[in-house]
Amino acid sequence: MGSYARGDVDETAAAAETRAERRGRATADTRSAILEAARSAILADGYAALSTRRVADLAGVPLSQIHYHFGSKRQLVLAVLAVENERLLERQSDMYDAPEPLWVRWDRACEFLDADLRSGYVRILHEMIAAGWSDAEVAASVREMTSGWFVLLADVARRERERGTDLGPFTPEEVGALMGLPFIGAESMLLAGMPEDVLPARSALRKVGQVLRGLTEGSRTDDH
To answer: Which pTM does this prediction carry?
Structure first.
């Protein structure tokens, strides 16, 4: 009798776990669908014109689901940005961890620029940077996300110094700032449609790689 009762309990527990797993998958699927729909809507309409009702229609879910999962339009857009930021920061970290010389990795970062513009990440980031000028909560989220990039670049500079590259008067953190800020400036001007003949941002960034090649190879030659 006791054995039969335990069997019933085990089967009930297994069934409950299965239901919980199904609910978890459904929740994750709904959340992913909303995030993808929001990303598409932002790219089409921009942050200021973004409508949560349009996002709900694109995702095929009731409007109430957006408020349930994200609370507000602002939090929804920040969630879209956070997902993209995490993915790209991991990509960049893997790239800078590669054994190639720094200038080779810099060239690869330049190649990523146009890919990130096409993906929509850059536009969403700059939309939220602008929104953060008048919204402290948005500004705090943007600072948290973008600080990860500068911490990564400072770590890259620190490793280069340990390998013998002379950073001159600059700290690794300052070198990280000098590596990251040109991309942010270039992105904003490219988004604004600045023509290449007026502001040759892409070619200028690539030539920084040539400067890095001279610095790193020159420093190591001097050491020998």
So the answer is: 0.78
